[in-house]
Amino acid sequence: MSVATVPPDREPLPGPEPLSGPEPLSGPEPVSGPEPVSGPDPVSGPDPVSVPEPVSVPEPVSVPDPVSGPEPVSGPDPVSGPDPVSGPEPAPDPGAGLRREWLAPFLLDVRLTLSVHRHGGGDPAYRVDAAGAVWRTSLTPEGPGTLRVTSRPSPPEGTLVTGQAWGPGAGWLLGTLPAQLGADDDLSGFTVWHPVVGELVLRHPGLRIGRTGRVFEALVPAVLEQKVVGREAHRAWRFLLRTFGQAAPGPVPAGMRVLPPPRVWARIPSWDWHRAGVEGVRARTIIAAAGVAVRLEQVLELDPAEADRRLRSLPGIGAWTSAEIRQRAAGDPDAVSVGDYHLPRAVGWTLAGRVTDDAGMLELLAPYAGHRYRVTRLVELGGSEPPRRGPRMPVRDYRAL
After folding, report:
1. pLDDT of the chain, 401 residues: tens digit per residue
2. Cβ distance 292 to 51 under 8 Å?
3. How would DSSP label each residue in 169-199?
4. What is the pTM of this model?
């Protein structure tokens, strides 16, 4: 990843003054998306859900050895090591399915780039096998498909990517493979304003912001992750895919499933949402989105601001959820997850050595306009956050009610 240093005649923004008022709670399990929710449900998701009818440096800065922070940031799920899989890994038949090779003209870390699509250990739609290959399933416009991706360096600065795909959506998955791996990721204008950001860039040179081109596929797990701890959201995701998803095509690792189509989500009965541990607010948000799923895919053709507005017009979709969708489906390098429980603390502590809220985080990220999500992704991967002192938030289980 090539970045520019701060111009010599321009001082980096100093960041905001320390915030007054009580320090944010610390210590609970990671909580995804905190948009406030109206309604009687005490555990409702972050976005109000009164569901109406569905809305129709010249060179990178030379830096010292990586700095050590107080604690590693609690961000995305780990990407090292194979995912747990029941039974032995099946050996894919090189002669089966479709195959494509793509020479990326840049350093590319396939596992790191695709890891944003992994929703907890044992994700039925994502696996990393013992050989280091990444497996993903997707409900493409042409039907369900499975993708297996491997890579190796191609000197001097390239990466040779090999994709294999199975199912009706195999051709579509291979056709969009470069985009999924960041071929359209534009680094122009990305300037390092904090030495620690330069260090993180050098530490993760193969990170790219890719795009899947599938909006509803990104929306469902984002809604499930609203206002709950990660384990609770991932448990619901596993249950719903295993119960309503279809078996992944191809010689896949055991237990892989494909996201159900919108019409299936719209018909999931209330008792199965309850069995998944999903309360009515998040369930109604997904059901409403399923009713306009075809129109939702059109946001990929809009500029980021209009795409954000269109997504947030949907009941139950707020700033955090919209950003999470656009990061993955559209590859928006500037979509900041405003409202995240841990992200402001991590950004503030990494860039300024202090705890900040959303407003303070946005001030610190202002010099990186156009690439703010890129910076927060780097912070999640290798930044730091203040020590935790509070009790951990328990995982709720609606199935016991």
Report:
1. 555 554 444 444 344 343 343 343 333 343 344 443 333 343 334 443 343 444 343 344 343 343 333 343 344 444 444 444 444 445 555 446 999 999 999 999 999 999 999 999 999 999 999 999 999 999 999 999 999 999 999 998 899 999 999 999 999 999 999 999 999 999 999 999 999 999 999 999 999 999 999 999 999 999 999 989 889 999 999 999 999 999 999 999 999 999 999 999 999 999 999 999 999 999 999 999 999 999 999 999 999 999 999 999 999 999 999 999 999 999 999 999 999 989 999 999 999 999 999 999 999 999 999 999 999 999 999 988 787 765 555 556 655 55
2. no
3. THHHHHHTHHHHTTTT---TT-EE-SHHHHH
4. 0.76
229, 30 in Cβ contact below 8 A?
Answer: yes
Please say whether the dihedral angle defined by the alpha carbons of residues 77, 224, 327 and 197, taken in this order, is positive or negative: negative
Exposed, middle or buried: residue 106 (CB in 10 Å: 0-12, 13-18, 19+)? middle
> 271 Cβ partners below 8 Å, 6+ apart?
none
The phi and psi torsions of 139 (rounded to 5 degrees) equal: -95, 95
Q: 135: burial class by Cβ within 10 Å (0-12, 13-18, 19+)?
A: buried
Q: Which has the closest alpha carbon to 197: 72, 57, 334, 74? A: 57
Q: What is the 8-class DSSP label of residue 75? A: -
- The residues spanned by each domain of the chain are 26-88+98-391
Strands (E), 46-201: 98-104, 126-128, 134-140, 143-154, 158-166, 191-192
Residue 216: C-alpha distances to residues 112, 258, 287, 294, 364 (Å): 22, 13, 11, 9, 31
Q: Rounded to the nearest 5°, which phi and psi values hold at 25?
A: -55, 145
Q: How many CA atoms lie within 13 A of 332 on its CB side?
A: 24
Q: Tell me how far apart the 2 most distant CA atoms of the chain are, in Å.
A: 63
The string of DSSP codes covering 256-274 is: -EEPPPHHHHHT--HHHHH
CA–CA dist 175, 78 (Å, integer): 28
